[in-house]
Amino acid sequence: MAKPSRKDRTRPAELLILSAVMAIFTGLIVLMSTRDIVLSLIFVGIVFILVLVVLAMLVLAVRPDGDELHDLDEQDHPGGH
Question: Where are the transmembrane segments (predicted)?
C-alpha cells in the first residue's frame, strides 16, 4: 500500500489553520468594535466551526482526478484484481 503524500497528510492542518486565522480575525474585529471579550470569544468559536464545516464541505465536493481515482482503485483492490 502506498503511503500518503505530504500534501495529503497536511491537508487537515491547512484547513484548521485557515479556520483559526479567519476566526481570530473576526474575533479581533468584534473585540475592537464592542470592547467585550466574552462576545469576541463567542464569535471566534462560531466562526471557527462555521469556516471549518464550509471548507470541509468544499473539499468533499471536489471530484478526484485520474491519479486519485487510480490510487483509490488500488486501495480498494490491493491484490491487483
Answer: 12-31, 37-62
**DSSP 3-state of 18:** helix
pLDDT digits (tens, 9 = 90+) for 12-55: 889 999 999 999 999 999 999 999 999 999 999 999 999 999 99
Pairwise CA distance, residues 37 & 14, whole Å: 27
**Helix H or strand E encompassing 1:** none
Q: How far apart are CA 74 and CA 80, in angstroms?
A: 7
d(CA 42, CA 50): 12
Give Cα separations from 77 to 46, 64, 80 (angstroms). 41, 18, 6
